[in-house]
Amino acid sequence: MDFRFDLIRDYLPFFLEGTLYTIGVSLLGILFGTILGLLIGVGKMLKNKLLAFPFILFITFFRGTPLFVQILLIHFGLIPLVIGQTSAIVAGVVALTLNASAYIAEIFRAGIQSIDRGQMEAARSLGQTHLQAMRYVILPQAVKRMIPPLGNEFIVLLKDSSLLAVITVPELMYWGRAFQGQYYKIWEPYLTAALIYLILTLSMSFILDRIEKRLATE
């Protein structure tokens, strides 16, 4: 096998650009997905089943269908319907956000419900509203328990962002496919992409592990 390091060197600027896009769309998906996931998770816990149903339906759909299919539906259907024309980057961020929020919603729900109900009752007896009790008493305790599953979801999202190559978001995998198509090489582009993904996921795992340990000591 004639492994061409020179081709990898020539493509490094493109891989660097793709890495920045991968980090960018993943961070946006994580940020918006966490915010939306919290709202959906709380919505699912509403006592009124009719009000909770749309949130349950949302979670069921996005957890029960492939992300690849969701990306295509959003890119070719939803985004043109909303803004009149499609945009690969916008569609990619929206797809990652919606998919991640469905999983994060369940993480928030499980984390919140793991806190003893007496905590809420005690906060309410001290004069706090339900929202204040949730913000100052329940969520701070629940977040510590949610860090490991949230970390796993963030890492999964980072790797799943590679699917955005199919709608031509110029992220890491897009340039790996471009490399392979230009030089008809397999090992060089995909091993390089795999190594970069490995570095990114290990870095995120390290950061999340530090955060988890820091919270455990507080």
Report on the architecture of this protein.
Helices cover 83% and strands 0% of the residues. It starts with a helix and ends with a helix. It contains 8 helices and no strands. The protein has 218 residues and is mainly alpha-helical.
Question: What is the compact description of this entry?
Answer:
This protein has helices at residues 5-44, 49-64, 67-83, 88-113, 117-125, 130-160, 172-183, 187-216. By secondary structure, the protein is an all-alpha fold.
What is the mean predicted local confidence, pLDDT?
Answer: 92
Task: Please give the alpha-carbon distance between the first and last residues.
Answer: 54 Å
Based on CA atoms alone, the radius of gyration comes out at 21 Å
Helix content: over 70%
> Class by helix and strand content?
mainly alpha
Shape category: globular
Secondary-structure element order, N to C: HHHHHHHH
Percent in strands: under 5%
Per DSSP, the total helix count is: 8
What about the largest sheet?
Answer: none
Beta-strand segment tally = 0
Uncertain segments = none
